[in-house]
Amino acid sequence: MYSTVRTFAGHLLISGDKKLNGLKKALIIMAAGILSLALGKLWSLSFPIIKNLWTSSFVLYAGGWSLILLSLFYLVIDVWDLKSGASPSCDWFELHHHLHAEFGIIDFEQMGRYFFGGLATSFQSLPDR
User: Fold this and answer.
1) Domain locations along the chain
2) Counting beta carbons within 10 angstroms of the beta carbon of residue 109, is it exposed (0 to 12), middle (13 to 18) or buried (19 or more)?
C-alpha cells in the first residue's frame, strides 16, 4: 500500500497532462493525503495504529502525512519557485540550529536516539580489528 501511494504521487507529478498544472497536482496530492489520514484514523477504531507492526491503519495514516508533506514541498519549491534553502547543499547544521535552538520545534537529538539508538549500541559491541 505504501509503495502504491508513492507510485501514484510520482506518476501524477511527472505526468505531462496539460489539464493538470502544478497547483492542481499539489491539490490532488493534498486531498489524497487528507483522505488517507481520515481513513487511517477511521480504520484505527477497529484495527489500532501500531508502528512496530506496520498495521494497515498505520500505513494509511503515515501515507497521508507523507502525501500532505509532499504536496506542500512541491507547491512551495516547484510551483511557487521558492527554492532558497532547498538545495541539497544547504547547511543542515544551520537548519538544526534554527529549528531546535531558536524555535524549539524539532528535537533532533531525541530523534537521532529514537531512530539510531539501537543501531549505535549494536556497533559498540563489535570487536576491535
Assistant:
1) 2-83, 91-129
2) exposed
Whole-angstrom distance, CA of residue 45 vs CA of residue 61: 13
CA-to-CA distance for 66 and 4, rounded, in angstroms? 12
Residue 101 pLDDT greater than 70, yes or no: no
Instruction: Give the separation between CA 8 and CA 2, rounded to whole angstroms.
Output: 10
Q: What would the pLDDT profile of 42-96 be if each residue is shown by its tens digit?
A: 999 998 888 888 888 888 998 899 899 989 988 988 888 876 655 554 544 455 5
Q: With contact defined as beta carbons under 8 Å apart, do 109 and 65 qualify?
A: no
Question: Residue 16, Cβ neighbours under 10 Å: how many?
Answer: 5
Grid cell at residue 41: 484514523
